[in-house]
Amino acid sequence: xxxxxxxIIQHSRFNPIHFSAEDLEASRMRYFNNLQGWNFFMxxxxxxxxxxxxxxxFRKVPDITLEPDYEEYKEMYAREERRNRDYxxxxxxxxxxxxxxxxxxxxxxxxxxxxxxxxxxxxxxKEGEANGFEDFILRxxxxxxxxxxxxxxxxxxTIVETDKGKDQVWYFVFFPDSDQVYEWNYLGRLDIEGERWxxxxxxxxxxxxxxxxxxxxxxxxxxxFWQDKVLFRxxxxxxxxxxxx
Length: 245
Description:
Elements: H1 2-11, H2 24-37, H3 74-84, H4 92-128, E1 133-137, E2 154-162, E3 167-174, E4 181-184, E5 190-192, H5 199-207, H6 223-230, E6 233-234, E7 237-238, E8 241-244
Antiparallel strand pairs: 1-2, 2-3, 3-4, 3-5, 4-8, 6-7
């Protein structure tokens, strides 16, 4: 574990260390000097410093819910609590590396889903002018994707220009392992007007009628929402999902 953590320190974007020396001995000396700078050794000695693992380099991810004022300031702590939840007790350096790897994987997933599935679907809807769908508007030039960690289902609020000249938010649901697309009708479509750069806030407000979510969420892990308000089934099929032909 010690070797892995030191390796992370070397390659961390927070502590960049670049070995550009011309020979191995010079590289070793530079590495040795870095270890000294991190208090890896006792003063004036090559003996290992037993307190090295207690320095700021090795802070551990705290459980925010144990803070004395957590309940009083729960909303203020919410984002940090979500960020820490999967990494409590890990070294911050290790957690940081894992977060970066997860985010890279998520970005690749989103790019693939958008380019291979969602954008072709929206273009097909536009060309067919189905159900009054005339055009679509992308926030920050990419689809908005809301999904749980397991990525089993994706909710994509989409701003649609209708054939009646109105802007509406339609909620599409995709399954990565299926070609079928659904419209989520639990809240219904949202009529919006005014400056388009304000539409993000309108979407957050509308979704708040069903679930707590905002653009700071990496994942939406509310299982009650997914199971009871999106994927709920009766004998006749999905209660709140309508197939789009």
